[in-house]
Design a protein that fits this description.
Layout: H1 3-11, E1 25-29, H2 33-39, E2 45-49, E3 61-66, E4 74-88, H3 94-100, H4 107-118, E5 127-135, H5 141-147
Parallel strand pairs: 1-3
Antiparallel strand pairs: 2-5, 3-4, 4-5
Length: 155
């Protein structure tokens, strides 16, 4: 196996392994609860337990997917990472928490949620990574129209 294929096998998961975007990192969500929130733009961040700054970087393109490991995954959309912040759980702002889960605002709710996901106790002193992302909309009509000088003044 060529080195690039080995690298992709380690870095790419699910749909991206066969996509035309080799080496694109996947931002996967296990719960289908998030599908609607992601598609409606209500979930624009993820809070991951531990320091994931080596895995995700600002301006990096990622595939946002939903599904379980070693199972088919649904590609929700392609996104760009807007920011990656490593902090303690106690340093999470209500805004950090809301962008991860629009139903939550309090640290206690986030701790309980992380404990369910990771299957272990989580404390306010645990390290988390807040990854904010924005959906990449391919060829939005307004952008295409602006590029062709349709419907408005040009700068």
């Amino acid at each position: 196996m060529p080195a690039s294929a080995t690298w992709c096998a380690r870095r790419c998961h699910g749909p991206s392994a066969n996509s035309n975007l080799p080496g694109v990192q996947v931002l996967n969500f296990y719960s289908t609860i998030f599908a609607d929130q992601l598609k409606r733009g209500r979930k624009t961040a993820t809070i991951r337990l531990g320091d994931k700054s080596h895995k995700y970087r600002k301006n990096q393109a990622v595939l946002v997917t939903i599904g379980y490991q070693h199972s088919p995954r649904e590609k929700v959309f392609t996104a760009v990472i807007d920011s990656v912040e490593v902090k303690r759980v106690k340093e999470l702002s209500p805004r950090d928490i809301e962008h991860d889960n629009p139903e939550f605002r309090r640290t206690e709710e986030m701790i309980h949620f992380l404990e369910q996901i990771y299957g272990r106790d989580v404390t306010v002193d645990d390290t988390v990574t807040v990854v904010r992302f924005s959906q990449i909309i391919e060829n939005p009509p307004s952008m295409t129209e602006r590029l062709h000088g349709i419907g408005g003044a040009q700068n």
